[in-house]
Amino acid sequence: MDEKRWFLLHEGQVTGPFAVSDVATEASSLKSPMVWGRGQSEWVSLEKWTKSAKDDVGQAAKSKGSDRIWKVRASQQEMAPMDHDQMIDYLKKQTDYAEIQIWTEGYSEWKDIYQIHKIMDELGVSRRAHPRVPIMGTLQCEGTSNTFTAKALSISEGGLGVTEASEVKIGEKFKTILKSPNLPAAVHSTCEVVYVAEGGYAGMKFVTIQAEAVAGIIEYVKKFT
CA nearest 73: which of 53, 97, 52? Predict the structure, then answer.
């Protein structure tokens, strides 16, 4: 928790990285800042981040010097309690983490795998050909039989993570326009859906995109990496 991996978003500007102990100080003079750390799927409020950070500290303190028992819930079905190695072995056999949540002593609630950075590293979940970072914006999608506007959650040089896209199917292609205060201009592209999950979450890869737009995305991603 002491490493510098936390970023703040305020009025479209990203600052960081900060150590966990410095986030509150840096955010004290900002109005309604958002926080992101490597492994999160989207920006969260300072209040939500603070609660999550306290959970992690409490969990670490309670488990120090003892073997932790972990619980795994997949599609609302809870597995038998496991030790750490059993849990990692189980998770490595899974192909989709979207519906999997984890709990251990010290957590006040079930957590998505993406919220637990150490486990993500062990599973290699965060290792991508193109680093994915959070973004705030809207994605207008126009397909052959489906037109809608989704909420952008994350972006990389290779694609996007979105929500509010409940009707899409893997393999569908859309003409898209991404508008975000984090980017210098709207991004026009063609995207293909590569995965879908519950709650309207979907992953899209860029099929065609202008070089100028890619350059803008790369510059934005660099702020985090």
Answer: 97
Evaluate the omega torsion of the peptide bond into residue 17 and state whether it is cis, within 30 degrees of 0. Answer: yes
Sorted by where each begins, the domain ranges of the chain are 6-63, 70-123, 133-222
According to CATH, the topology of domain 133-222 is Thrombin, subunit H (2.40.10)
148 versus 58: which is more confidently predicted? Answer: 148
| Residues facing 192 on adjacent strands | 173, 205
Rg (CA), the chain: 18
Measured CA to CA, the distance from residue 191 to residue 14 in angstroms comes to 26
- % of the chain beyond a pLDDT of 70: 84
b/e map of 31-43 (b: 16 or more CB within 10 Å)?
eebbbbbbbbbbb
- How far is residue 206's CA from residue 212's CA, in Å, rounded to a whole number? 14
DSSP state of 72: E
